[in-house]
Each structure stands twice: as structure tokens, then as C-alpha cells.
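WARN retry 2 of 3 for item q-0093 after timeout on previous attempt; input resubmitted unchanged.
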Amino acid sequence: MSYRVCFVCTGNICRSPMAESVFRARIEEAGLDGLVEVDSAGTGGWHEGDGADSRTVAVLAAAGYESGHAARQFHASWFSRLDLVIALDSGHLTALRRLAPTPEYAAKVRLLRSYDPDAGDDLDVPDPYYGPMDGFEECLEMVEAASPGLLAAVQQGLEGRAA
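OK item q-0093 returned
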């Protein structure tokens, strides 16, 4: 059975698809692409079916990442099939934990930047949607910085299954 990770932001067109693309690349580089499934969703459904924001796509492409994506809304029923639900900011964390039907499911929700040992106290990835292009570049930097720690946590989760 695959280890499943879902990244969640507000509309699923900027931060979470970026995190999904970056982390999928890290999973492939680690040789875990057959063992780990990575996807993303939004806390709301405003953009369901839309592709990622063009600025997200441009930043990902410039950094060498693939970005095929269609936005969708996160549903409480998904908790049962997911191992980790990665929130991009504290608002998403709160919303997802409230949506979780049990305390065990709520415990699956973590902030992405909590996996970056250099993140400090501010664990939110700022929403770049209403700002200039450098906000998208900053978002990518934050996602990339957290990815090694998240990868280590997923690898530990996989080892726990084998035991």
C-alpha cells in the first residue's frame, strides 16, 4: 500500500500545486515513486478543474519541475486514505483539523515549514496570489527548503510500515 501525502492551500492553484510538484520530484529522486503518492487540494472549491496559476507554472518550469495540475477541493472523507495532510499555512492547518472527523485524523495534519529546521517561528508559506512574481519565487524557496525534512519523515513512515 502506498504512503499518501496531500498538500493543501486555499484554492489549490499556487502554493499546494507547487509543493506537490517539488515533492513529487524529491520522491522520484529518492527512488520512492512507486511507494509514495503525492497530490494536492484546496480548502475551498473556487478553482476546481482549473490549472495552476500561470506564475506558479512559470516558476516551476524555470526551476525544472513539471506542473500538470487540476485544482480540487479537499474533503473530510479523504483523511482515511491519507498518511499526511500538509497545510501551507496556519489558517489551512486550523481548517483541516476542524474538518477532521477524529483526533487521529487531525493528527495527520502538519505545516509544511515545520519540516524546515531553519524556518524559525513563522511556519506559514505566504500566499503569493495577489503579489508580484517574486512572491512565487519565495514560495518555491520555502517549499524546497522544507522538502528534505518532509522526505525524511515520509521515509521514516515507510520504514515503520515494513517493521
